[in-house]
Design goal:
Number of strands: 9
Strand order of the largest sheet: 5-4-3-6-7-9-8
InterPro entries: DNA_methylase_N6_adenine_CS (IPR002052), HemK-like (IPR004556), N5-glutamine_MTase (IPR050320), PrmC_N (IPR040758), SAM-dependent_MTases_sf (IPR029063), Small_mtfrase_dom (IPR007848)
Keywords: Acetylation, Methyltransferase, S-adenosyl-L-methionine, Transferase
Structural class: alpha/beta
Order of helices and strands: HHHHHEEHEHEHEEHHEHEE
CATH class of the largest domain: Alpha Beta
CATH architecture of the largest domain: 3-Layer(aba) Sandwich
Distance between the termini: 32 Å
Helix content: 25-40%
Enzyme class: transferase
CATH topology of the largest domain: Rossmann fold
Number of domains: 2
Organism: Suricata suricatta (Meerkat)
Radius of gyration: 22 Å
GO biological process, one term: methylation
Length: about 350
């Protein structure tokens, strides 16, 4: 989560936060005057692009195209039939475009305005303040899929890998893996109630609830890993954790600062707070030669490598670093090289938690 990557990919993404709705001063927004003589989709896109540009809204044309297409029942403006681009909109449609465009003028992310977004070919519901999946995170999913395909030992009891996702957010990573690995099972955890509910809803919409356990869990709490032991050792741990350096938080765009949960972004002084908790947790949960896949800040590969060298007791090795589509070191593959750690008597788990009801 750094200023040039996860944070500031074209602000059409409307990067934001997970915790609250501090930027939602809708009651103070004064709508623009009713449009006169602008009746077609093409004219509306031109009009709102000009308004957005004048008001300094990032990705002005893309924002207006997505909003107009959404009102007309399409995902993209380019996918609209030519006749729909030129025919007159109804008064209701014009009013709806104006309402949604007003939200964009408040720097609300397009994903929240539309209420959904595509990730790895899946249409996921989006709702504030849950973290919006970024396009570079698709690279993390693709790397995991490659490694699973190449591995001869990443098979759980039911013939596919058992995967733990830490910080599931909207469920984008977990549900993408489930959809492309038909024999896999996922344990998805997040400390945020909104994230747990949204992952649950997206899993239900995609008919994947039978292969995912969704658990409210804060991995920073002592002994939290014990709640995961009833499901058995994991083949993989995958996470796109909070990794923004704390001092960089105030430099984030308004879409980020005002709408998404800061807890989903702020990784502490060096962006490592949650990363180190995941790594410390891993030896208790991973199978022999189990793997961890992380999305990180480009400054983190060196920091993580040094931290792992200082914690040889964890028996974890940084085995590979992969770049994102902008050429920055963004993804880490860490592998357990020693026997699985035992479970201390005082930390043995109680009864298996019940699955979040559908």
């Amino acid at each position: 989560m750094e200023i040039g990557g996860r944070m500031l990919w074209p602000l059409l993404s409307g990067l934001g936060r997970r915790k609250g709705t501090r930027g939602w001063a809708f009651s103070s927004w004064q709508p623009c005057r009713p449009l006169a003589g602008l009746l077609s989709a093409t004219e509306l896109v031109s009009h709102w692009t000009a308004v957005f540009e004048k008001r300094g809204i990032p990705e002005a044309q893309a924002s207006s195209e997505y909003i107009v297409a959404h009102v007309l029942g399409a995902k993209t403006f380019q996918s609209l039939r030519p006749v729909l681009r030129t025919q007159s909109l109804t008064p209701w449609q014009l009013q709806y475009v104006q309402k949604l465009s007003g939200y964009r003028l408040q720097r609300m992310p397009v994903q929240y305005i539309l209420g959904e977004w595509d990730f790895q070919g899946l249409t996921l519901k989006m709702a504030p303040p849950v973290f919006i999946p970024r396009p570079e995170t698709e690279g993390l999913v693709e790397w995991v899929l490659e490694e699973v395909a190449q591995s001869s030992c990443a098979a759980g009891a039911q013939g596919g890998p058992l995967i733990l996702e830490v910080g599931c957010g909207s469920g984008a990573i977990s549900l993408s893996l489930l959809s492309q690995l038909p024999q896999s099972r996922v344990i998805a955890v997040d400390k945020g109630e909104a994230a747990i509910c949204l992952t649950q809803e997206n899993a239900q919409r995609l008919r994947l609830l039978d292969r995912i356990q969704i658990i409210p869990l804060d991995v920073t709490l002592e002994g939290s890993w014990a709640h995961l032991l009833p499901w058995g050792p994991m083949d993989l741990i995958v996470s796109n954790p909070p990794y923004v350096f704390h001092q960089d938080m105030e430099q984030l765009a308004p879409e980020i600062r005002s709408y998404e949960d800061p807890v989903a972004l702020d990784g502490g002084k060096e962006g490592m707070d949650i990363i180190t908790h995941i790594l410390a947790l891993a030896p208790w949960l991973l199978k022999d030669s189990g793997s961890i896949f992380l999305e990180v800040d480009p400054r983190h590969p060196e920091l993580v490598g040094s931290w792992l060298q200082s914690r040889s007791d964890l028996s974890l090795d940084l085995v590979a670093v992969r770049q994102d589509f902008c050429g920055r070191p963004r993804f880490l593959h860490i592998q357990r090289s020693g026997p699985q750690h035992g479970c201390p008597v005082e930390a043995r788990p109680g009864p298996q938690p019940a699955r979040v009801p559908g």
